[in-house]
């Protein structure tokens, strides 16, 4: 009896010890920086994204600097496997799955080029198992896609200069072609790693509108295989919420309302334009394509203003001073408001990139979304018949 009690006591002690050991589980992330920040202006951060949907944002949990040999290191919590990100200065960002891999990366560091262009490099994580191999593969797909987008943009520009109509027409769907290729590669990776928790990383690159069956079946498989993987359950709920909101802003539905101040502090909203057709133009001072669209918007406004059209430009600039400076430069003659806290309105209209234009009818119902240039002209012709 004593022997049995002693055995149970030892077993209980071992369970407690194991629990404490598991609670303190960490993995090591190390890196070597080729061009370190010699002026010590920029830390190297370890952090993770928190929040859901448009409220999701990076939160730093630790920081460090390189040692005498240009190396750095983080101990990363791994009690509960999750995604983390290391940010080296202001350019290099490395996502990884913290579970059992001790990862090493080699990064460039400070941009030494005379002309600095935002073109993030591909960074390969060493010492990885399947979950982080997946992230390596996805990052290569995204990197190559980005490089092809740059090349297509340059070729579209050259085609326009050449006046070669065959070349111009061929290049019109250049972005669609490379995005379809990236989608094929992404789905291959999802199928290859469908049983790995980190496949969630790849799922972020496909849309439920086009690949909903693959998306949902993969999430259901993860939930069944890993009951502890709350990230899969949260992802599924986020998609279901997104689907519900998409139905709410379908063409013919009431445009979500919002209210923000103009330059004089007077709040304005789409409701103020009832009885007129309205273009809601989401833009920002720092957005090149947004500002390239403004001359065209001026033409549209001039052509249809007397026929009952209004424009409400909604800047998503976080700094009002930048918004005001851009307004002075662009000289737009229609109402302007500034959404300093823009995430709620972006979530209600389900967009993350700008420019984003929405056409609303006289009753405040959505006519079309995400129109610009030629598609905006077509929308105006449908409404005004010219």
Structural description of this entry:
The chain has 386 residues and is of the alpha+beta class. The protein is built from 11 helices and 14 strands. The strands form 4 sheets. The chain has a 5-stranded mixed sheet with strand order 12-11-10-13-14, with helices on one face. A 4-stranded antiparallel sheet has the order 3-2-5-6. β10 (277-283), α8 (288-304) and β11 form a beta-alpha-beta unit. α2 packs antiparallel against α3, α2 (130-162) packs antiparallel against α4 (174-192) and α6 packs antiparallel against α7. The longest helix is centred in the middle third of the chain and has 33 residues, at 130-162. The relative contact order is 0.08. Residues 1-22 have low confidence and may be disordered.
Structure class: alpha+beta
Shape: globular
The order of strands across the largest sheet is: 12-11-10-13-14
Main sheet summary = 5 strands, mixed
Radius of gyration, Cα only, in angstroms?
26 Å
Helix percentage: 40-55%
Number of helices: 11
Which sequence of SSEs, written as H and E, runs from N to C? HEEEEEEEHHHHHHEEEHEHEHEEH
The tally of strands reads 14
Uncertain regions spanning at least 5 consecutive residues: 1-22
Q: What is the CA-CA span between the terminal residues?
A: 96 Å
Indicate the proportion of strand residues.
15-25%
Mean pLDDT: 90
């Amino acid at each position: 009896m004593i022997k049995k009690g002693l055995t149970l006591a030892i077993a209980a002690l071992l369970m407690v010890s194991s629990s404490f050991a598991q609670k303190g589980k960490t993995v090591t992330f190390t890196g070597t920086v080729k061009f370190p920040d010699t002026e010590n202006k920029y830390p190297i951060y370890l952090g993770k994204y928190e929040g859901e949907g448009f409220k999701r944002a990076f939160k730093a949990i630790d920081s460090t600097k390189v040692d005498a040999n240009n190396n750095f290191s983080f101990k990363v919590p791994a009690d509960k496997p999750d995604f983390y990100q290391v940010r080296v200065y202001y350019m290099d960002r490395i996502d990884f799955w913290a579970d059992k891999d001790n990862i090493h990366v080699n990064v460039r560091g400070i941009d030494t080029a005379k002309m600095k262009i935002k073109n993030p490099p591909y960074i390969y994580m060493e010492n990885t198992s399947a979950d982080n191999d997946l992230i390596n593969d996805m990052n290569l797909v995204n990197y190559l896609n980005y490089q092809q987008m740059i090349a297509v943009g340059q070729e579209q520009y050259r085609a326009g200069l050449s006046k070669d109509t065959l070349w111009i027409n061929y290049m019109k769907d250049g972005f669609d072609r490379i995005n379809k290729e990236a989608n094929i590669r992404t789905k291959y990776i999802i199928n290859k790693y469908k049983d790995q928790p980190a496949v969630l990383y790849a799922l972020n690159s496909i849309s439920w509108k086009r690949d909903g069956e693959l998306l949902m079946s993969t999430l259901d498989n993860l939930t069944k295989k890993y009951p502890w993987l709350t990230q899969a359950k949260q992802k599924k709920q986020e998609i279901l919420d997104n689907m519900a909101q998409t139905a709410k802003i379908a063409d013919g539905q009431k445009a979500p309302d919002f209210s923000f101040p103009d330059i004089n502090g007077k709040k304005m909203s789409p409701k103020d334009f009832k009885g007129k057709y309205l273009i809601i133009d989401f833009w920002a001072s720092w957005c090149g394509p947004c500002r390239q669209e403004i001359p065209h918007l001026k033409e549209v406004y001039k052509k249809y203003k007397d026929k009952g059209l209004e424009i409400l430009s909604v800047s998503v600039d976080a700094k009002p001073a930048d918004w005001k400076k851009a307004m002075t430069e662009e000289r737009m003659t229609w109402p302007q408001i500034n959404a300093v806290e823009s995430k709620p309105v972006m979530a209600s209209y389900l967009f993350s990139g700008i420019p984003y234009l929405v056409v609303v009818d006289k009753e405040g119902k959505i006519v079309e979304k995400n129109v610009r240039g030629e598609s905006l002209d077509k929308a105006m012709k449908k409404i005004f018949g010219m």
